[in-house]
Design brief:
The complex is a heterodimer of chains A (280) and B (629). Chain A is α/β, with parallel strands linked by helices and 280 residues long. Chain A has ten helices and ten strands. Among the domains of chain A are: 140 residues, 3-Layer(aba) Sandwich (Rossmann fold), CATH 3.40.50.300; 38 residues. Chain B is elongated, with a radius of gyration of 35 Å. With 629 residues, chain B is α/β, with parallel strands linked by helices. Classes of the chains: A alpha/beta (280), B alpha/beta (629).
Chain lengths: 280, 629
């Protein structure tokens, strides 16, 4: 099967502040691919560049070197107009459900926006709102309300509905459940999986949480300081990591069993002592 | 886990009534709106309702006093003042509008483009704006008159250009702020054209300040235009308020009364516009503000400023369309208390903190009290780590803040008792708290960065409480602070001591705050989600540090968190909180391995760690990945 998205040796640099400042290199040659209907989990800590990779795929970050190919076509250097035409192929769900919905628009206005932008008639677009809300498990009555009337989990459902409006083939999910309570988190993840099974959409799922990524991903890539350090099947990377950084990440996440956690803590300390020993 | 605090779901009436309707409800807004509507009508129909031809001079009437035929008298040329005043309204208003429209077009468009696209246009616009702002307005206007001739319209056009920066700066600032919002990025990804994004998402945010600024600029336009005419810079053939003022001023000693009418027209219109702008600001800005967090700075006894973030859930506000949390089991007032197990009974010590039947409530605008903690009881023993776990809005932070006496404005302990080592805290005056908080109870906050004052060095923020609270000398306090920084694992204590908070990372800042919290050798530490804002690997190190310090010093700790992993790593005993009540309490192993309460069970079930991985993608008609490889 051909890959839906191929990222090759991607470098993203942001201009430095001030004259003659060194540009900041957020991504240092990253390569990964996503197949249709697949979830690629992207794990890393803050500053690792995982969000930058997502933004580059969305056309929101500048591609300095390398290529991003979608369905065989280079999309890394598109102008504004051809990029807009990709809206029905690649969509996004952001982390913060409070800033990703315009507070002054009703849910109906938010959901019809991508449709009317593509020339769908207003009444027809409104007709689709009920269907979209239904797919994310919100009642039709939600359409006339404002974002602030909803809880975090509900807002994230609205953001998912907006992403689905144009029936894209790839959705970049940038920490979509990190802001949510544990039980809400599980429900939103299950919703995302259900949508994927029904529509065959692919996800680039960005998160810092190994447990979340294990739950939703077919494959997992681990990022550290702008580079991919490990890529592989979800189960393998999240339970038997090979790269020392992934091992550290894995052992650092505390488990809800005090005795198991004690062992994990000891293993983490041993790993660190070993690393320090190597360095010395 | 980085969790964004869920903002309070306090039910507020949706503010969707039109601006006009809301303005009319304010007496000042209503009065000024009515006055301006009358002025506008006169500006349109003035010509026809004027009793006399405003340009028909009569020698008999020169400087005539008010009379039944000419209620406001006549001026030095024998024109009827009332007629001229009515007719002049049109020109005066229109001239001010010319200035406003010019300023609006130039300022708003340049501000939108500069703020949205940035780049070279931003630099050019910024230079041009600064240049125009530096020009002395009156001198430019006089020069323009000399070059362009005595035209009101041209003068106002030039003045409009001079006023444009007022809009440019306003719009620019608002656009730059909204440009960073994620909903703009989402609109870009949705395929909206730039024009649509600006028109729909950006303009809606800057609309309110533009409208307010317009009213103010219009009043400035009227005043400046009158000023120019008063100086005799205008076209004498066209009647305006300023020109009438000029004529009346020359004859001030003969007919002082005629000075009053144009002055009243100018000043009342300007006042009405300003009052209207004020009323609009009050109405509009209330709805524009996106309320994200209830945050209040409180000064902790450690001398640092703690940003208190709280979330309040009002069980089932009117916005609850579906219940997104869990199948919430019925909350019973009875807390399930498990007996001590072998580990916890080994360290059975005296309680240092006793909370009994604690209720916390918030004063509401309508005078009622919204209760968020409904009677909870808890004991923290000496030298133990007690976890308080719950989801956002469960009241766990409220409980901790009640102990610290740091409840945000309007919050108070409505009933119940808090007893700290023999001191009653629930009714304690601030003075008692001052001697306990920071010196005997330490506090570790959730967000390290907002809890350090960026204008002081880290060192001074550590030394201050030692000097003030413990009466140490500056030298001793400095030595102790440096030793503490080293103890909490800061690689170069001297450099960090001299650094400002923004110069260190989040993990380092949290270590600094931990050093600060233990610096006064407290018996109890209250830690509010101490690792939530940190990366997992940093979290692990900070948890190690907290455990080591706690053992070393035999401190008791009340740890507020939503993370079961953190609980299992640190805690001896745990209390589970749901919707302002404790549902279950006991030794950590009992709660995590054999929970009795359905709510605790549902929370533990929601943890993803234990679940199976999803496995590789198997597409229809294809071998599994493993078989192919």
């Amino acid at each position: 099967m051909n890959a839906l998205l191929e990222v090759e040796d991607l470098v993203v640099e942001y201009p430095g502040k001030g004259l003659r400042a060194q540009p900041f290199r957020a991504l240092k040659g990253v390569s990964l691919d996503i197949r249709p209907g697949e979830t690629m989990g992207l794990v890393g800590e803050s500053g690792s560049g995982k969000t930058t990779l997502g933004r580059a795929v969305l056309g929101l970050a500048p591609v300095t070197e390398g290529s991003i190919r979608y369905a065989g076509r280079d999309i890394g250097h598109l102008g504004r107009r051809p990029r807009r035409a990709l809206a029905d192929q690649i969509q996004v769900v952001f982390q913060d459900p409070y800033s990703s919905l315009n507070p002054s628009l009703t849910i109906e206005q938010i959901l019809t926006e991508p449709l009317t932008a593509r020339g769908v008639a207003g009444t027809q677009a409104k007709g689709r709102v009920r269907d979209l809300l239904d797919r994310v498990g919100l009642p039709a009555g939600a359409a006339t309300r404002l974002p602030r009337e909803f809880s975090g989990g509900q807002r994230q459902r609205i953001a998912i509905a907006r992403a689905l409006a144009l029936s894209p083939r790839l959705i970049v999910c940038d920490e979509p459940v990190s802001a949510l309570d544990l039980s809400t988190q599980a429900r939103v993840l299950d919703l995302l999986i259900e949508i994927q099974e029904n529509t065959g959409v692919a996800y680039l799922f960005i998160t810092h949480d190994l447990a979340v990524v294990r739950h939703i991903s077919h494959r997992v890539a681990v990022m550290y300081r702008g580079e991919l350090v490990e890529t592989g099947d979800g189960d393998q990377v999240t339970s038997r990591p090979e790269h020392p950084y992934t091992q550290r990440l894995f052992l650092a996440a505390p488990v809800p069993d005090p005795d198991e956690q004690q062992e994990r803590r000891a293993a983490r300390r041993a790993l660190r002592a070993e690393a320090e020993g190597d360095a010395a | 886990m980085t969790a964004i605090d869920i903002p309070p779901a306090i039910p507020t009436a949706p503010v969707r009534a039109s601006l006009l309707r809301r303005l009319v409800r304010r007496p000042l807004g209503l009065a000024s709106a009515i006055f301006l509507v009358i002025v506008a009508i006169i500006a349109v129909v003035g010509e026809w309702i004027a009793p006399y031809d405003p340009n028909k001079a009569s020698l008999q009437l020169v400087l005539a006093p008010p009379s039944p035929a000419h209620p406001l008298g006549a001026d030095s040329s024998g024109f009827d003042i009332l007629s001229r005043l009515l007719v002049a309204t049109q020109v005066s208003m229109a001239a001010a509008l010319v200035a406003l429209v010019t300023a609006l077009i130039l300022g708003v468009i340049s501000g939108l483009i500069a703020g949205y696209y940035r780049g070279w246009f931003d630099s050019v616009a910024s230079w041009a704006t600064s240049l125009i702002m530096a020009l002395p307005g009156m001198v430019v206007l006089l020069a323009a008159r000399a070059v362009l001739g005595p035209s009101v319209w041209l003068a106002m056009l030039v003045f409009g250009v001079l006023l444009a920066p007022a809009f440019n700066r306003l719009v620019y600032a608002a656009v730059v702020a909204v440009r960073g919002e994620l909903f703009i990025d989402a609109a870009v990804v949705s395929g909206l054209s730039d024009m649509r994004i600006i028109g729909r998402h950006v303009l809606s945010v800057v609309r309110a300040p533009i409208i307010i600024q317009s009213a103010i600029v219009l009043s400035i336009g009227i005043a400046i235009q009158a000023g120019l005419e008063f100086l005799g810079m205008g076209d004498t053939a066209v009647p305006t308020w300023g020109q009438m003022l000029n004529d009346a001023f020359i004859n001030m000693y003969k007919t002082p009364l005629s000075l009053v009418w144009p002055s009243l027209a100018i000043s009342l219109t300007c006042i009405a516009l300003t009052l209207l702008a004020n009323a609009m600001r009050d109405e509009l800005e209330r709805t524009v503000v996106v309320r994200r967090r209830r945050r209040r700075a409180v000064t902790t006894a450690t001398g640092s400023v703690a940003a208190v973030t709280t979330s309040i859930a009002t069980g089932g506000g009117d916005g609850e369309l579906i219940d997104d949390s869990v199948d919430v089991p019925v909350v019973s007032a009875e807390t399930i208390v498990h007996p001590d197990d072998a580990l916890t009974s080994a360290q059975l010590t005296e309680p240092i903190l006793r909370i009994r039947d604690l209720h916390v409530g918030y004063d509401q605008p309508d005078g009622s009290v919204l209760e968020v903690v409904h009677g909870v009881s808890l004991e923290v023993r000496k030298g133990e780590v007690h976890g308080l776990i719950g989801e956002s809005g469960s009241g766990k932070t409220q409980t901790a803040f009640a102990v610290l006496g740091l409840l945000p404005r309007g919050g108070s302990v409505t009933s119940g008792a808090i007893d700290y080592d023999g001191t009653a805290l629930h009714s304690a005056p601030e003075k008692v708290y001052a001697s306990i908080r920071g010196s005997r109870i330490g506090y570790i906050p959730q967000e390290p960065m907002s809890n350090l004052d960026p204008s002081f060095t880290i060192g001074s923020q550590l030394v201050e409480p030692l000097r003030v609270g413990l009466g140490m000398s500056t030298r001793d306090a400095r030595a102790k602070s440096l030793a503490l920084l080293e103890r909490v694992g800061i690689p170069n204590p001297k450099r960090t001591f001299a650094a400002y908070p923004f110069e260190v990372s989040g993990g380092m800042a949290q270590r600094v705050l931990i050093a600060g919290a233990v610096s006064t050798d407290p018996d109890l530490i209250i830690a509010d989600e101490p690792t939530t804002a940190l990366d997992v690997t940093v979290q692990a190190d900070v948890l190690d540090l907290l455990r080591d310090l706690q053992r070393e010093r035999g401190m008791a700790m009340l740890l507020v968190t939503h993370n079961f992993g953190v609980v299992s790593d640190l805690c001896d005993r745990v209390t589970v909180m749901q919707q302002g009540l404790f549902v279950e309490s006991g030794p950590v192993r009992t709660i995590l391995k054999k929970p009795s309460h359905p709510y605790t069970q549902s929370l533990l079930d929601a943890i993803l760690d234990e679940g199976p991985a999803r496995g590789p993608l198997v597409a229809a008609g294809e071998q599994p990945e493993g078989a192919r490889a």
